């Protein structure tokens, strides 16, 4: 019985071998694919980019020039899930590995060439910017080579707990007149700042008094004050309208200031055509409006950007935390 079983298995394998050989002979007689460019010779190469069949180097160059083909596979080409094969998975995996390798090499080269450097903003400017942020103003510090950075004299008074701003007043004249005020406390009202320029006994130089004659005959209530919305495009400038009875702190709250504030002073008769927007109620709204304006109203990008929470004021006792021994939780204890 064992012998008969082995003989039957051998005959079965022989019949299967004959059948496979017949299939191979049938496949061997398939029609050869001709070149898609010259249509004369048999195609030998397949372009990874457009899958064109070519026969020689001349046909390869001809198809690249004719179809503007790069000859490279499109790694971002869409492929249906039903057509997705193991080869496509290997290609995607190789693409991710190449991207990781390039990012790692760039990171290493950056440290080698010392491209990653610490912030060059001086410590006192970082503190002033932080104090301004605690008072609701996002102060942006420019690079040291900029004139606006060099001319900025803003500071913070620790005793009075006030920001001392460098204030720039731009009067809307045929030739705009710019007057600067140094170390102005943010508790000062805009009316008090402007009143001395509208006094006939103004102590400024003769050229300034001559240019301000058109304003000195006007009442302060007939003026309109504006501050530029930052950052803004050169062809789409917007302004916030300020109340003349508000203080500098109230006027700058929830706004972005580049180095120091600049206030535009003009007559109400000319202020009707000024492009203004409502005042923001929080810094989160300022960031969202800024991103929406720069992205053309893409709300999805706005939602993905986190908002940095406001840090506690260093002089606020309610923000300090104490442990059982009465030590401040926000203090750094060194040397233990």
CATH topology of the domain at 123-277: Ubiquitin-like (UB roll)
- C-alpha-based Rg, rounded: 37 Å
The helix fraction, in percent, is 25-40%
Top CATH class of the domain at 123-277: Alpha Beta
Cα distance, first to last residue? 90 Å
Family: Belongs to the BCD1 family.
Keywords: Metal-binding, Phosphoprotein, Zinc, Zinc-finger
Domain HIT-type: 35-69
Region (Disordered): 1-25, 316-336
What does this protein look like?
- This protein has 336 residues and is of the alpha+beta class.
- Among the domains are: 32-74, no CATH class; 81-112; 123-277, Roll (Ubiquitin-like (UB roll)).
- Helices cover 36% and strands 15% of the residues.
- It contains eleven helices and ten strands.
- Strands 4, 5, 6, 7, 8 and 10 form a six-stranded mixed beta sheet that branches.
- The longest helix has 27 residues, at 2-28.
- The radius of gyration is 37 Å and the shape is elongated.
- The relative contact order is 0.07.
- Residues 13-28, 295-327 and 329-336 have low confidence and may be disordered.
List the helices and strands and how they pair.
Blueprint: H1 2-28, E1 45-46, E2 53-54, H2 57-67, H3 86-112, H4 123-134, E3 137-140, H5 147-150, E4 155-157, E5 162-171, E6 177-185, H6 190-195, H7 206-211, H8 213-216, E7 223-228, E8 239-242, H9 248-252, E9 255-258, E10 262-267, H10 283-294, H11 299-304
Parallel strand pairs: 3-9, 5-10
Antiparallel strand pairs: 1-2, 4-5, 5-6, 7-8, 7-10
